[in-house]
Amino acid sequence: MEVSADGYAPLSVETLGARLGGLPDVADRIGGTPSEWQVREVGDGNLNLVFVVRGPAGTVIVKQALPYVRLVGDSWPLPLKRAFFEYHALTRQAARDPGRVPQIYHFDAVQALIVMEFLSPHTILRGKLIAGDHVAGLGEALGRFVARTAFRGSDLSMPTATRKADAALFLGNVELCDITEGLVFTDPYHDAPRNHHTPELAPVVAALRGDVAMKVQVQHMLARFASNAETMLHGDLHTGSVMCTGSETRVIDPEFAFYGPMGFDLGMLIANFLMAFFSQPAHRKPGEVDAYQTWILQVIGDLCAAFDAEFRHLWTTERTGMLYPAALFEDQGHGSDAALNDRLAIIWDDAMGFCGIEMHRRILSLAHNADFESITDTGLRARLEARSLTMGRDLILDRPADPATLIARARATHTKDIL
Amino acid sequence: MEVSADGYAPLSVETLGARLGGLPDVADRIGGTPSEWQVREVGDGNLNLVFVVRGPAGTVIVKQALPYVRLVGDSWPLPLKRAFFEYHALTRQAARDPGRVPQIYHFDAVQALIVMEFLSPHTILRGKLIAGDHVAGLGEALGRFVARTAFRGSDLSMPTATRKADAALFLGNVELCDITEGLVFTDPYHDAPRNHHTPELAPVVAALRGDVAMKVQVQHMLARFASNAETMLHGDLHTGSVMCTGSETRVIDPEFAFYGPMGFDLGMLIANFLMAFFSQPAHRKPGEVDAYQTWILQVIGDLCAAFDAEFRHLWTTERTGMLYPAALFEDQGHGSDAALNDRLAIIWDDAMGFCGIEMHRRILSLAHNADFESITDTGLRARLEARSLTMGRDLILDRPADPATLIARARATHTKDIL
Questions:
Q1: Do A328 and B222 touch (CB under 8 A)?
Q2: Which pLDDT tens digit goes with each residue over B313-322?
Q3: Domain presence at residue B193
Q4: Mean pLDDT of the A281-293 span
Q5: Nearest Cβ partner for B181 among A228, A322, A334
Q6: What is the pLDDT of chain B when averaged over all its residues?
Q7: Quick one: B394 and B335 in the same domain?
C-alpha cells in the first residue's frame, strides 16, 4: 500500500474493512464487524476506485479517487481534490432536487473518498439502453433534475454573492474541466495522440476535420463552456452517470461539476440518448429495433418537455435572484414571459451545440461509450457511428428549433446510408 | 482617528505624514522628512480618500478605501478589500498594457491603501471634454488598452488554469459588482429609492420604464455581466477613470475589476463619450459645438478602430490559450478569420448593449456624471439627456452593425427634439 505524505493511500478489497471499520457512522450502517464485510471492487468508470461493501445490516458504496486517470494509468496524473468537488456537488444537487442523487454517509477529503448510498437494484442506464430495457418516468425525472439544478444554482434563484462564492469554489475543479476542454471540444477535431476511432470511419472523420465552419462553432461552444458560469452543472451527465430500476432514476458521479452554461447537462444527456438510438440496429433483433428506438425518442421528448415545464414553473415560483427581478416586471404590471422564452431559447440553442459535440467526441476522442464500442462488427459499427457523426455536425451548424424538430431529424438521419 | 480591530484607520491630511513616513520606499520618493510634506485631499470620486503628497524629491498619490461609499456615507458600508482588487487589477493591467496605468509604489492590504504614481499635468478626461480640450491619440490609446487587457486576460491568451484561478480571485469583488448590478442594470428601470433625475425628463423616463422589450434585453445583458467571465475588465471605464495631458492618456481606478464579458469596458467607454457628445450644446458657444462634437465622434471612431486592429493583431500573434487553437486551424491549413470575426461581432454586440444601459443609468440612477449634471438650466439639461436616453434605448434594442452606423445614429439623435 502506497501512502502519500499527507496520509492518502488507495483502498483495496483487502484493506477496506480495516481502514473504514473505525468510522462509527459507516460501521453501523454496514453492521457486524469489518471481518464479516464482503468487499467487491466494481469500478467500471474511467477515473476512480469503487467498492461495494456488504454487511449484516446493509450495503454501502465507497468511491475513492486515484491520483491519476484510471483509464490511462499513472502517466496521466489527476488530483485527488475531485472527490471534494464531487462531495460538494452531491450536497448541492441533493438540496436542489431532493432524492435524485445518492445519500452521503461519510466524506474524507484527505483519503479522497465518499461513502454513500448503495443503489439497488439500480443498474447503469447505458447498459439498460443496450439491453433494451424500459424505465418508467425516465425522461421526466432527468428533465426535472436538469431544470432544478440549473435554475436553483443560478442568479435566477440564489443570492448572487452566494452564487459567486460557489462559482469561485468550483473554479478550483480545473483539472477535470481541462479534461472536458481537451477530450470533448478539441481532440475530436484534429489528429490528437489520445484519439482512436473505428477504421472504416476514416472518410467521414476527414470530412469532419476539414469542416472549418463547424470547428469555429465548436470553439464558440468551448468559449461558452469555459466562461459562462450560469449555474452549477453535473458536468458529465451521460447515460453512464444515471442508474435506474424499471421505475426509478438516480443521478451519480458529479465529479466534473463546475459553473457553466445551463444547456451543457441537457445537451450531453440528449446526445447520449441519441447515440443509444443510433446504435440500436446492432443490439436488437430487426423486428424490435423500431419500437425501442421510438421509446428512446419518446424519452428525449419527455426529458425536454419536463425540463421546459419545470424551468417555467420555477421561473414563476422561485425567481428570487437578481436576474429579471419582479421589481422590473410583475411589480410594474409587466409580464416576464418574453424574458423566460428568450432564456429557454438560449439554453436550447446551447444544448443542441453541446449535443452535437458530445456525439462526435464519444466516437473520435479517448473515452468512447459502450453503445457503439460493444459492437464487434466494425463495419456495422462504423455505419451507425457515421450517422451519429453526421447528425452531430448538423446540430452544431443548424440547431433545430425545438425537440420535435430534433427528433424528426434523428429519425431521418437513421435512414441515411453515409458509409 | 478611528482604528478598527485589525488596525485599519482612515488617513487624514494631518496624520498621513506620520503614518507613511516610516515606509522607506515611499519616503525616498517624496524626499525630505514627513514634516516637510505638503498633503492635500483631492478625492472627487464616489468611494475613496485620495491624497496628493508633495515633497522635495517628488509627489505621490495615496488612495485609501473607506469602509463605506463616500458619496452616500456610512449608511452604505463597502468592504475595504476593494483596495486589494484595485491593486491586483493594476498589476495585471500594467503587465497587459505596459505604461497605461499608474505605477504602484506601495500596497497595504490592512490599511486598504495604495501609494502610486502622481500623474502630472494630467487631468480627468471628463473635465477636458466639458472644457472643450483636445487630446492627441486618445482613441488609439484607449482602444489599444481595452483590446490588450481583454485579449491578454482571456482564454485566448492565458493558460486556462491561470485564468480560472484569477477569475476565482476576482469573484471575491462581489460588493463592487453588486453596485454595478444594482445601479447600472436594475435601478434605472424602476422607481428605486437611490434614483434621481432631472424633473423635466419625467415623460421620457416613464416611457423607458414601460418598455418591457427593452427591460428584457437589459436583464439579458445583466446575465452576461454576471456570468460571462471572459476576461478581467476594468469594470468602471468611464471618462472619469481616464487622465490625460494634451497628448498622453492614462487609465486609473480599476477597483471594480472583475472577470466579465469583453464588450463591457468598450461599451461603457463609448457611452461616456456619447454623453459628452450630447451634452456639448450646454458647454460650447453655438459656433463651436459642431467642431468639438465632430472631434468626440472621431475619438469614438479611433477607439473602435484601434480596438479592432489591436485585437486582430493579438489574435494572430499571441493566440496561445486553449480557445481556437492553431492545432485546429492554422496547423490544418485552415484560416481562423471566421472565428475572429465572430468573436469581434459578439464583443461589439455586447458593447452596444452595455453602452445603451450606461447612457441610461448616468441620468436615472444614483451616480450621475458632470457632463449633464453641471448644466444648471434643467430644461436644457433635460432636452440633452432625453437624446441620450433615447439613443440608449435604440442601442439596446437595435444594435448598430459597426462604428460608422453608431456614429451616424449619434448625429441623427443629436438633431431630434424629444422634449
A1: no
A2: 999 999 999 9
A3: yes
A4: 98
A5: A322
A6: 96
A7: yes
Inform me whether the C-beta atom of residue A326 falls under 8 Å from chain B C-beta atoms: no
Position A71 scores a pLDDT of 82
A44 pLDDT above the threshold of 80: no
Q: What is the domain range of residue B102?
A: 16-117
This prediction has a pTM of 0.97
Contact B228 A226 (CB under 8 A): no
Contact A339 B219 (CB under 8 A): yes
Per-residue pLDDT tens over the stretch A230-243? 999 999 999 999 99
Cβ <8 Å between B186 and A322: yes
Same structural domain for residues B58 and B137? no
| Contact B190/A at CB under 8 A | yes
pLDDT(A321) > 60:
yes
Tell me if B355 sits within 8 A of B268, measured CB to CB: yes
Using the CB atoms, write b or e for A133-148: b if 16+ within 10 Å: eebebbbbbbbbbbbb
The verdict on B143 and B289 lying in the same domain is yes
Q: What grid cell was written down for B224?
A: 452576461
Question: In A, which residues are within 8 Å of B189 by CB distance?
Answer: 328
Q: In this predicted model, what pLDDT tens digit does every residue of B223-275 receive, in sequence order?
A: 999 999 999 999 999 999 999 999 999 999 999 999 999 999 999 999 999 99
Number of domains in chain B: 2
Kindly report whether the peptide bond that precedes residue A188 is cis, defined as omega within 30 degrees of 0. no
What ipTM did this prediction achieve? 0.96
Torsion of CA B171, B176, B177, B183, to 10 degrees: 170
Residue where a domain stops, chosen among B82, B117, B152: B117
**Helix-then-strand count for chain B, H and E:** 15, 12
For residue A339, which residues of chain B lie inside 8 Å, CB to CB?
216, 219-220
B258 and B349 share a domain? Answer: yes
- Of B113, B344, B372, nearest in space to B239 by CA: B372
